[in-house]
Amino acid sequence: MRTGVWLVGARGSVAVTSIVGAAALRAGLTEPIGCVTEHPALRSARLPAYGDLAFGGHDIATTGLVKKAEALAAAGVVPARLVDTLHSELAAVDDDIRPLPHGATQAETAAAMASDIEDFRQRYRLERVVVVNVASTEAAPAPHPAHDRLDALREALAGPGAVLPPSALAAYAAFTAGCAFVDFTPSTGARLPALHELAVERGVPYGGHDGKTGETLLKAVLAPMFAMRNLQVRSWSGINLLGGGDGATLAEPAANAAKSASKQRVLKETLGYQPDGHTRIEFVPDIGDFKTAWDLITFAGFLGTPMRMEFTWHGCDSALAAPLVLDLARLAAAAHRAGRSGPLTELAFFFKDPLGDVDHSLAAQFAVLAEFTGTLG
Amino acid sequence: MRTGVWLVGARGSVAVTSIVGAAALRAGLTEPIGCVTEHPALRSARLPAYGDLAFGGHDIATTGLVKKAEALAAAGVVPARLVDTLHSELAAVDDDIRPLPHGATQAETAAAMASDIEDFRQRYRLERVVVVNVASTEAAPAPHPAHDRLDALREALAGPGAVLPPSALAAYAAFTAGCAFVDFTPSTGARLPALHELAVERGVPYGGHDGKTGETLLKAVLAPMFAMRNLQVRSWSGINLLGGGDGATLAEPAANAAKSASKQRVLKETLGYQPDGHTRIEFVPDIGDFKTAWDLITFAGFLGTPMRMEFTWHGCDSALAAPLVLDLARLAAAAHRAGRSGPLTELAFFFKDPLGDVDHSLAAQFAVLAEFTGTLG
Amino acid sequence: MRTGVWLVGARGSVAVTSIVGAAALRAGLTEPIGCVTEHPALRSARLPAYGDLAFGGHDIATTGLVKKAEALAAAGVVPARLVDTLHSELAAVDDDIRPLPHGATQAETAAAMASDIEDFRQRYRLERVVVVNVASTEAAPAPHPAHDRLDALREALAGPGAVLPPSALAAYAAFTAGCAFVDFTPSTGARLPALHELAVERGVPYGGHDGKTGETLLKAVLAPMFAMRNLQVRSWSGINLLGGGDGATLAEPAANAAKSASKQRVLKETLGYQPDGHTRIEFVPDIGDFKTAWDLITFAGFLGTPMRMEFTWHGCDSALAAPLVLDLARLAAAAHRAGRSGPLTELAFFFKDPLGDVDHSLAAQFAVLAEFTGTLG
Amino acid sequence: MRTGVWLVGARGSVAVTSIVGAAALRAGLTEPIGCVTEHPALRSARLPAYGDLAFGGHDIATTGLVKKAEALAAAGVVPARLVDTLHSELAAVDDDIRPLPHGATQAETAAAMASDIEDFRQRYRLERVVVVNVASTEAAPAPHPAHDRLDALREALAGPGAVLPPSALAAYAAFTAGCAFVDFTPSTGARLPALHELAVERGVPYGGHDGKTGETLLKAVLAPMFAMRNLQVRSWSGINLLGGGDGATLAEPAANAAKSASKQRVLKETLGYQPDGHTRIEFVPDIGDFKTAWDLITFAGFLGTPMRMEFTWHGCDSALAAPLVLDLARLAAAAHRAGRSGPLTELAFFFKDPLGDVDHSLAAQFAVLAEFTGTLG
């Protein structure tokens, strides 16, 4: 039985890399490197096979998926020969990408979005569809009283004005269409009491937030190392240089502050105290899709002896994110089938800013994920 | 009840830093930073208190402990004011450091060593003594048939010639004296079948090898990170620049090769394959006691996209090792009291080259250690 | 004949390190490491000897110089034994540090400052005095019409209100007292047409701005390297982590922007184009007086092949600046004696933001400096 | 008038990148990035134009130039589209690459080599030919008495056995054919008194040794920086990780030692003393043609304060070397035409191990080169 993956932001770098990769896996042209669900501790027949995933989505961008894939190939993100070979498969997926609807009210917009998803499900006779948000990061929305209760929200959406930010409206539409929803971005997504109420009402699960692709991944193993060794982290400072799509957005002071706070959160929660230092994000167009992050950690050892470490991470965010998008789609689909609804806190391994009050150690998160995968059967 | 810590190499950097630190802890002049047994998950009333540890040892060096402590203070390894304040305590410990005996046969030497330890135990009415080897790294010894059986070993030791390398003779002496033995170095120590037989016969536990102080500590969290994320490590290369005591020894081609192999072992066992690359050790006198390690890791992500990370670790080996020596003495003493004998494989967290067939992930090793500590009561 | 060095900000880190160093040099307790005027190409009998320098200055801080020197010793900036040994010399200098005067008008304040300098000159029968500004960096001042002409400036200073920022008032006082003036900071100093007029009228030379102590020093050799090799620098981004005195000031967004622009200027002027990227300054208290700067440079080689380099600089700003302060005092005194007045553009080697339209290559600047030194005799 | 460039090792990475680049420049498909002779200070109408260079050479490899170019494109060294577009030009050059002759004596081999070069010159009516050695690095040859005098050398070459290593035999053949010779490698080349005699006899110039492509380029600007600032370099240690053609050869202990010594020479000669430390070369196949060099420099500032810097250089050796090969061919041709014979010490800018007793500062070498270029007209 086939499973749909409906990508919000389907013509962006992460989405297109996911789609190219899934097509390459189906065609046996690549290995599932970077796919966590292929780790021996997680592999499970309950997860839909790569070959059984069908892709569609919404996007406001009109540049076609093939063109975007060619641009990614030129930037070294995906191999050019794959894009050539998979040309017709990619063009076919592009036909299932719909412009983002604009209704007179947000209620109408959400209904049109849900209808696009439902059409997709029926067209390919899909057992179920998982909606994954991989659109650009939004600014934090203003609070609104209708965010707290589902009935108030329904009423407000029927009126004029923007009650929900786009990511939350996407979650609303997904739940309305009976789909699981995963937010791979730092945006609001399903993180509102009214949306939680809707997810539970519709019996669908949701997951998020903010895929752990680079520097935070390292923090999630290094901070526990310092904690386990009882070394005292005095400062942890860093800078992220990035030039791709999200770079310009994230380097805005406001987004920067939000993102930076989320990046330092793991330290406080792992170490039990907040070291000095910040993480800056800087937009450098020439860097392109390969992000360079540098961190300096100063720490005290026995008798207060000062020591330090630094690291440089030079990774391709889209290539790190794409296999996780496939993992999350497979896991959310299996969880939905297994009858789970509400927040999937067991997916914390994947996220910088996970749902729920969870352990921030990567090893602990992996153990939770492995156990969760075992319960899906 | 007091516990003795008998250090083989008692006037070396690691030993002296341990002794200064224990005295400072006893006097309330410092916090137990870097002491793993102070982590909330490990803290236990079954472990001897820092204030209940008494120090003595063997060394071929004749420069006094106070002088060595002053040299470490000048090098920034320990605070100068602590050495001043603790002057008389350190001088008192120095009185309990004995020159390494030289008998006509190794059997005689071992008997004299055991007798020194026994004298120490009685002099301070110690409940038990743990012997910890922190002497310089030896070259790998030639194999000898007497290494395999205790009766053959006893016979060979009574004859002329060197049957056991110094670290193994120290283990023999420790076991003979009914003491637990821990090898903090890469040397042979208790790793011979005949010595295992002796430890079991005498009902004493032993642990080792090669304290995980710097680069390997990082490997023990970074390699599992790549494994958990199913990323493909293509190469892992590094260089260690060090100038302190062990530097000249370790940079010898033979020792270098042995050490380097031990450093790469964790990769093979964690990843399931051996990436390209080596770890070099280089002696640079100006670096002093602060070791600088640099590693470059190249890895492939989704669709084979090449990525890389590098890190620099600038740590003081003695200050990283010393609290672990205290941890190991406390844990080995508690294990001995709890009736354990033979290899303490649960101590893998502390070692580059741990005893037994154990998981190399730091997080997994920590969990094993925490459980072990819980069973000691 | 003795020469005075009057330091504005005489109890700050740079000033105190300079004073400790000069006293140590006089006493033969150290070598002139980091003193450029000791380079064989620059050494000259026309420069006042270290032993002939007398120190005094202004400061608003009331914590004594000895106490500050002890704090610097604790931070590892100067050796503790030197501070102990030189205790009485340092206390004697502290007696020549005056509180910054506060007159009813800026004219009165400047007159009181000049009078303090003149008293100092007479008290020690100094041949001449060089005033060096090493006070904290100021915010950029608002433009004022009186900045452009000396007569207008004199009139405005006699009225109420602050016409000149503190650094410019110090230059005004120095010139009034017939002294050469050097600004080691990014502040305004003598960089106003009216002050230039005054310097020429009084026949005194001046120099500046912003001592080249760390990252910009590297830029001044690396940018010419890329230029000479005709490689195309695509981006140059960096971050400076610093925790000492100036850290908090410089990390303010406004000061940060000004400083960052000055740091990138060298690139534009050396390469002939402005690469992508910025330099950020970040205040991290735990870093203390040792600044860590990290830079990433991406560049294109033949056929556009993308390459990259990164560097980390871990330097002590005060220890890098102090010998330059001595160099500048010696050079400015000799220039003054040689009859030079107005801007000393030949001192560009020392500055991030040098006076005049000069070559930014360190090697070119060194050649100019060596020639200049040769002309002083 | 056209100029020939005869490459010894014409199917190696450096040679092929040079040939692709020259063809791309001729076709107007690229800019001369990395070509030093395009720097405004060096540009000269006396240098043969890129469009006037004709390529040929010797190689023992039989894999065609086009295939090698495609492999370089796959490795990211040259753009794939260029190789496609220039396919026929590259194939035409391949027709001018001759197998390395093997005569019964070295005299016969050299004569056959000279004859190949002469044929090439006549076939394309070239004004002159420059021979450039870009073959793999050789082991240092055993000394031979015939190396010292030309008549003895001629006699010895006519006998059996290998008197000259391949690079020196290539120089002998070049001089015999009346061609200028440049050695871009660390091999012997023309560095024998007998060969110098021959060059002078034939009135041809020669240059070398060992193109300054990466880490040594940085040393040539950083070491002078420390010297100019009178900072005391305490240690300079490094490691070069490389996986391309020369990697396996250079990582051999003997070659490694030779190369490492050459890399440290610049320090001694620039600083006036030899700091601690070594440079290691390590072969890591996965690194491919992009070399990663990491260096740690520890230095003392004022009052002995210890500081440090480190850098990572991630460059493509072939793409860095190729434009220099074109530069050297142009400069050697112009020098030959201008009547120069014997060693071209003015080319030190290009080499790690330059001919003659020259300044090792890159800026000084650039000034010498610019002056030299000016004299060619």
From TrEMBL, chains A, B, C, D:
Family, per entry? Belongs to the myo-inositol 1-phosphate synthase family.
A GO biological-process term = inositol biosynthetic process
Q: Gene3D superfamilies, per this entry?
A: Dihydrodipicolinate Reductase, domain 2, NAD(P)-binding Rossmann-like Domain
Give all residue intervals belonging to the Myo-inositol-1-phosphate synthase GAPDH-like domain.
Answer: 214-318
Know the name of this protein?
Myo-inositol-1-phosphate synthase
Instruction: Give the superkingdom in one word.
Output: Bacteria
Could you tell me one molecular function GO term of this UniProt entry? inositol-3-phosphate synthase activity
A Pfam family matched in the record: Inos-1-P_synth
